[in-house]
Amino acid sequence: MKYIGKGIPGKNNQILTAGKGTFVGDITLPGMCHLAVVRSPYAHARIKSIDTSAAEQVPGVITTITGEEIVRNTKPIPTHSSALGEKKFQFYALAIGKARYVGEPVAAVVAEDRFTAKRGAELINVIYEDLPPVVDAEKALEAGSALVVDEWGDNILSSRIEVHGDPDARIKAAAGTVRGDVRTQRYTGCSIEPRGYIASYDRYRAKLTLWASTQSPHSLRLFLSETLGLRESQIQVIEPHVGGAFGLKLPTFPEEPLICYLAIKLERPVRWIEERTENLLAGGHAREMRLAFEAGYEKDGRVTALKVRLLADVGAPSALCGWGMANVAAFLIPAVYKIPDVKVERITVVTNKCPWNAYRAYGKEASMLMLERMMDMVAERTGLDRAEVRLRNFIQPNEFPYKQVSGASLDSGNYQRVLASALEAADWSGFPALQASAKKRGELIGIGLAYELTPEGGCIPKSSLLSAYDGTRVQVSPKGEVTIMTGVTSPGCGNETGIAQIVADELGVSPDIITVVQGDTDTCPFGLGNSSSRSVIFGGSAAKLAAGELRDKMSRVAARMLEVSPEDLELDGGKIVVKGAPSRSVSFADVASTIYRDAFTLAACDEEPGLDTTRYFRHGNFDAMNKQPDPEGRLNFYSTWPNGATIAVVRVDIETGMVTVLRLLSVHDAGVLINPMLVNANLHGAFAQSLGGALFENLVYDEAGQLQTASFMDYTMPTAVDLPNFETKHEETPSPFNPLGAKGAGESGISGPMAAVAGAIDDALRQAGLSVHVMEMPLTPNRVWKYIVAAKNAQRGNPQ
Amino acid sequence: MISEEFEFRAPTKLAEALSLLERYGDDAKILAGGMSLVPMMTLGLVRPKTVISFNHITDLNFVIDAKDVIRIGAMTRHDTVAHHDLIKKHLPLLATAAVGIGDVQVRHRGTIGGSLAHADPAADYPPVMLVAGAQFRIQSAKGDRMVKAAEFFTGLMQTAVGAGEVLSEIHVPKLPAGAGSAYLRLHRVEGSFPIVNAAAVIEKGFKSARVAIGGVGESAVMIDVTKHLSKGVSDQSLRAISDAAYDASGDAYGDLNGDTEYRRAMARVYAQRVIKAAAAQIR
Amino acid sequence: MKTPVEVTVNKKKYKVEVDTRMILADMLREELRLTGTHIGCGTGNCGACTVVLNGETVKSCCIIAADANGQEITTIEGLSSSATELHPIQQAFVENQGLQCGYCTPGMVLSTLQLLKDNPNPTEDEIRHGISGNLCRCTGYQFIVQSIQDAAKRLSNGGQPGASQ
Ligand SMILES: Cc1cc2nc3c(=O)[nH]c(=O)nc-3n(C[C@H](O)[C@H](O)[C@H](O)COP(=O)(O)OP(=O)(O)OC[C@H]3O[C@@H](n4cnc5c(N)ncnc54)[C@H](O)[C@@H]3O)c2cc1C
Ligand code: FES
Ligand code: FES
Fold it and tell me: E strands of B157-280, at which residues?
C-alpha cells in the first residue's frame, strides 16, 4: 500500500471541524493580562510628545510604554537578509521620532482586561506634528518629495537595472511593438484569523514562551533573541493552530518583540489578539506595482525583445520581508518565454502606507500578468491564436534545466503539454461557436488564457527566513508509534498530512499512526517554517531521508530476525515482509520493540540502540546548476518551478461593466503530487485569492494616507456566490532536484486566473466591436465600465 | 471591540422603552438588529452612553393585513419580510428587496425598522418604500405621528425620527390590482450593499408609473415617469426615463464602489431595467 | 459596567456577569470557554462567529452579550460531543476536505445546519447563497460546497454516507 499520490483528507480535519482546535486566541493563562496598541492616526508625523498619564489613571491599567523605553531596553529588530542591497534602517517595536504609516505602533497599554487596555490606549495623548505624506510611488521619486526616511535622501529602498543583450536595438528592428502599463493594486491575504500572540515569562527558569500565530517559529525565535538580547535557548516559540497565513504571518512584526518585552518586564502572561481594523492597517500589505512594458515581436509571433520598468510601492520600511516581492517580480521576467534581449529596471519605493509583508505568489503575479497581457497583444497584432503565440515563445521541454537570462534556473517542465491539455479540456477551439450563440442571446462572453510560472522553495543568501533546506526528525517508539518533528510548519495548508504520507511509504505504516509535530522550537529541529511552498519539498524530503535511515535499520534487524538478507525485505502494512513470501514477516512494532527492549539480543546487538533520526535536506538546483551567485553575479532564488495554464470564461455586462467568471480551468504541473486532494484544495484557495485580486479586493488610501478600506465592510472579498466551480487537471514533470520529484503547490494558481480573466474581458468586449486591453486591477464594474466608455469614445473619435 | 463603557437597558414593553428614550434623549441609542449599530460601536464610530435594546419588546414584530395596507412592525426581521406570505402576495418587490440584504445571518437579525432608521443611501428598502408610497409611524412618550416616505428620508443617514422618538411601524399600501413591480440591485459581491438599486411600480394600463433609485444621492430619489409611459414601454420611453434618472441623480456621491459618473450612468441603466422588469409583471 | 446574563447554551444553563461592552462571541469564548466560535472581523462580514440563536443563525459579533439574556444558543460545540463523534455535517466536511485552516469552519458548519434545515435538498447555487455570509480564505469554497452536498445526502440517509455518487 502506497500513500504518496493518494487524496487523503487533512490529519487535523476532525479536531478543527469539531471546533476544538487551539488557535492562539483560545489560549488563556493564569494571571494573563492584555495588550492594546496605540497606533498612529497619521500617515507621516513627527512624534512631539506622548502623555500616558490619563491612561495610567484608568483602574485596571497595569503599564504603558512608549518608544523611548523600547530603545533603551531592546536592540533593533533585524531584517531577514542583508544580501539584497536595500537601504538600512533601524526598526524597533514602537515608532521612534516619526510615525510612517497610519496604524504604526507608537505606544502601548497593558491592562487587566481587554476593554480597559483598549480604553487606556485611546487615552494616551500623543502630540504629533503632521508631515506631508508620501502616498504615490511616482510622486515619491520627484525631486522635492517629502522623505519617508530623512537620512536616505530619497524614497528609493533599492533599485536595479538588469540588461541582457540590446533590447533597444532589437525593438527598433522588430516587425512590430506592443506597449502597456500594467498595474496591480495593493491588496492582502486577510486570513480570517487575524494575528495574535501570548507571551509568558518564567522568571525562575529565565525562559520566555511565545504562542504566536506565525509561520516561522524558529526564525521568529532568532529575531527575538537578537532584539531582546536573550539566548535562543531562553525562548520557546509555539505555533498553535493558525487560521490562515498566506505569507502575511512571517516575522518580524513590531508587536512580536513588544509583547515579549512586556511579558518579561511584568513577569505576567500578556495576550494580544489583533482586531480586523488593525490587521488591515498594519498587518502587512502587498502587490502595489506598476509594470510599464514595451516588447518587440516578429511576424511569426516570436517576442524578441522586452523592456520593463517596474515600480513597486512597498509602503513604509519595515523588518518584514515583503519588499522582496518587487525583486522577485523583476527576477521572473521573462518566465516561461525565451526572449533573448531583456531589460528590466526595478525601482522599489517607500511611501507612508502600511509596509508590505510576504503574500502568496510573492511578486510573481505581477510579472505574470504583464507577460500574459503582452502575449495577448502580440497575438492580436499578428492575428495568431493566443495559444499559438505562447507556443512559439515557450522554452522547449528538452531544454531543462534551463537558465533564464535573469539567472533563474528552471528545473523541469513541459509547457507545451500542459497548454495542450488545458486547451483540450476547455474546448478552446469550440469557444467561438459558444460565443456567437451567446451573442444572439444578448450576452457577451469571452475566453482568456494565461500561462503562469510559480517558482517555489525560495532561497536568499544570508537569510534567516528563506533558504532551500529544512530539517525533519523521525522517531519510532518502542511500541512502534511514529512521530515526525519538522522545522516546516502548517498554518492551515495541510502539509502535515503530506509529510505523514511520505513517511508512511518509507516505513510501510498507515499515516493514521503517525503523529506530526510542528511549530515548536523546543521540540522540532531548526527549520524555516512555512512559506514559498517549501514545506513538502524540503520538510518532506528531509522526512524521507530520515525515515529511510530508520527503515534501513529496521530492515537490518528484521533480516536477522527472519534470517534473510535486508535486500529481500519490504515494509508494508505495518509489517516487514520477505518479498515474494508474504507469510514470512515480523511486525513493524515487534522490530521497534526489539531494538529498544532487546538491544543486546543477536538481532539488534550490532545496531546503535534507538530509532530516532534527524536529517536536513538541501535542495539541488543551486549547487548543481549555479553556485550562488553565478559568475555573472546573478542569483537563482528558487528551487522548483511549478507552472500551469489557466483558462477563464467570463460574461461582461456591457452596460454596467460587471464581470462574472463562468468558468475557470487550470492544468498544473507541480511535479509529483504527494496528495492530489490537498493540492487541489490549495489551488482552489489560490484561485479564489487571485480572482479576489482581479475583480474585488483593493486597499485604497486617500491623499492624506488614510486607509479607506480599514474593515471588512469596505474591503470586499469574494463569497461562494462570486466564484465559479473550479476545474483542475495535472501534468507531472518531476523535479530532478529532490527525492520526491515534488515541486510544491502553495502559491500556484494566484497568477494565472488574474491574467486569464483580463484576457477574457478583452475577448468579450471584442465581440461588441470594442478594442480594450484591461491593464489595471481590480476590474471592478466601475473600472470595466470606464474601459468600455473610453473604447466607445475612441471609436467615435476616429471612425474607421 | 467596544472600548467605551455604556449602560445597557432591555425593556419588554414599548411604553417602557419610550419613557427610557425620553429620559435619556440624545445620549441613548436604540438597538434593533444591531447589524449596523454594533459594528459602528466596535469601530468606535458611535459611542452611546446608553443602549436601549428593542429585542425584548415582542409587540413590534408583526406583519398584519390592514385592508389597503400591510402593517409591518419595526422589529420585524429582514428574513420575515423576505418570506412572509402577505408581503410576497401584496408587495413582491419588498420581499425581493429583503431577500437581497446581506446574507442569511444578517437577515435573521437585522430589522426593517433598523434599516430604515439607519437610512444608508444605498440600502435596499428605501426605493421600495418610495415607489410603494409607504407611511412611517413614529412614536415617542409624547406623540404618535405618521410620516410619508418622501418626508421620512431627510438626508444622508438622516430621517424624520427625532431624539426620544422611535420608528414603530411601517404601513405599505398593497400594490393596486394588476400592477407590475420590480426591484433590482447592482452589487460588487454577494451580501454587500448595492452600488445602485432601483424599484418600480407601474399600474395596469400605465395609469401611473414610478421609479426610485438608491445609491445616487443622499437618499433614494423618486421619479414619476407616468408621462413617459403613457404609450407603454418603447425605446423612446426608456430613453426618456433614462434621461430623467440621470437628471434626478445630480447629487450622486462617489465612493469605493462607484464614482459619481458611474452612479449616474447606472441610474440610467437601472431605471430602464427596472421599468422593463416591472412592465413585464403587469397582469 | 457589569450586567447579569442568563443563557442556555448547547442545552446547558449559564449565569454570568458580563461587561456591557462584551459581544456575544466574546462571552461564549471568554466566559463560557466555548472557543469554537471564532472572531474574524467584528463587523458582521465574515461569519466566523456564527451561532444559532433561538433556532436561527446569527453573527455573534453583532450581538451585545447582555442582549442574549434569556435566549437559547447553539454553538459548534453543541453539534458533537467530541472530535471523534461528529455530526454528519461535520463528518462530511472532514471527508471532503471542506476546510483547510479550520478557522471559518465552525461558522460554515452552522450555516450548513441552517441551510439544510430550511432546504434539505439544495442546488449548488442555493448552497452558495446559503453560505454567502461566511468568508473562507483558504478553500475557494469548492470543497465546502461538495461537503454540503455530501452532508445533505448523509442527513437524508440517517447520518450515514450517501449512496455512491
Ligand atoms: C454583512 C452585512 C451586510 C449588509 N448588507 C446590507 C444590504 O445589502 N442592504 C441593506 O440594506 N443593508 C445591509 N446591511 C445592513 C442591515 O440591513 C442592517 O440590519 C440595517 O442597516 C440596520 O438594521 P438593524 O435592525 O440591524 O439596526 P441597528 O443596527 O440595531 O440600528 C441601526 C440604527 O438605527 C437606529 N434604530 C434601529 N431601530 C430603530 C427604530 N425602530 N427607530 C428608530 N431608530 C432605530 C439605531 O439606533 C441605529 O442608529 C448589512 C449589514 C451587514 C452586517
Ligand atoms: S466576526 Fe462576526 S462576522 Fe466576522
Ligand atoms: S478554512 Fe481557512 S478560512 Fe476557511
Answer: 158-159, 165-173, 180-187, 194-202, 209-214, 221-224
Q: Distance (Å) from the C-alpha of residue B3 to the closest C-alpha of chain A?
A: 5
Helix segments in chain C, DSSP class H = 24-26, 88-95, 105-118, 124-130, 142-156
In total, how many domains does chain A have? 3
Residue B29 shares a structural domain with residue B90: no
Q: What is the C-alpha separation between B120 and B118, in angstroms, rounded?
A: 6
Cis peptide before A736, with omega less than 30 degrees from 0? no
Domain ranges in chain C are 2-78, 88-156
- Cell 523541469 belongs to which residue? A412
Q: Which residues pair with C2 in a beta bridge?
A: C19
C72 Cβ contact partners less than 8 Å away, ≥ 6 residues apart: C7, C8, C9, C53, C54, C55
Q: pTM value?
A: 0.97
**Neighboring chain B residues of A722 at a CB cutoff of 8 Å:** 189-190
**Under DSSP, is residue A765 helix (H, G, I), strand (E, B) or coil?**
helix
Counting beta carbons within 10 angstroms of the beta carbon of residue B45, is it exposed (0 to 12), middle (13 to 18) or buried (19 or more)? exposed
Q: Taking CB atoms and an 8 Å limit, are A722 and B190 in contact across chains?
A: yes
Q: Quote the strand ranges of A314-379, DSSP E.
A: 341-349
**What topology is assigned to C88-156 in CATH?**
DNA polymerase; domain 1 (1.10.150)
Whether residues A654 and A606 fall in one domain: no
User: With a 6 A CB cut-off, is B28 part of the ligand 1 pocket?
Assistant: no
pLDDT in tens, B23-77: 998 999 999 999 999 999 999 999 999 999 999 999 999 999 999 999 999 999 9
In this predicted structure, what is the pLDDT of residue A796?
Answer: 86
Residue C39 near ligand 2, beta carbon < 6 Å: yes
Q: Same domain, yes or no, for B65 and B109?
A: yes
What ipTM did this prediction achieve? 0.97
Q: Which of A261, A282, A303 is the last residue of a domain?
A: A282
- Ligand 3 atom nearest residue C40's Cα: 3
Which triple of cell numbers denotes residue A15? 479536531
Domain span at residue B267 reads 180-279
Residues of A in contact with C38 (CB under 8 A): 23, 25, 192-193, 243
> Considering B156, B173, B190, which residue would you say is the last residue of a domain?
B173
pLDDT value of position C109: 98
Domain of residue A489, residue span: 469-618
- Residue A263's pLDDT band (boundaries 50, 70, 90)? very high
Cβ pair A552, A530 in contact under 8 A: no
One-letter identity of residue A679: V
**Could you read off the pLDDT of A6-54 as tens digits, one per residue?**
999 999 999 999 999 999 999 999 999 999 999 999 999 999 999 999 9
pLDDT (tens digit, 9 = 90+) per residue, A315-361? 999 999 999 999 999 999 999 999 999 999 999 999 999 999 999 99
Verify that A450 and A485 share a domain, yes or no: no
Instruction: Report CA Rg, chain C.
Output: 16
Tell me the nearest-neighbour CA distance from A658 into chain B, angstroms: 8
Number of domains making up chain B: 3
End position of a domain, from candidates A593, A618, A643:
A618
User: Which of B157, B173, B189 is a domain's end point?
Assistant: B173
CATH number at residue B113: 3.30.465.10
Q: Cβ(A181)–Cβ(A775) under 8 Å?
A: yes
Structure confidence by residue, pLDDT tens digits, A674-683: 999 999 999 9
From first CA to last CA, the distance across chain B in angstroms is 52
By 3-state DSSP, what share of chain C in percent is helix, strand and coil, each rounded to 5?
A: 40, 20, 45
- Residues B116 and B48 both lie in one domain: no
Q: Do C23 and B51 touch (CB under 8 A)?
A: no
Topology of the domain comprising C2-78: Ubiquitin-like (UB roll) (3.10.20)
Which residues have CB under 8 Å from A703's CB, separation 6+? A133, A135
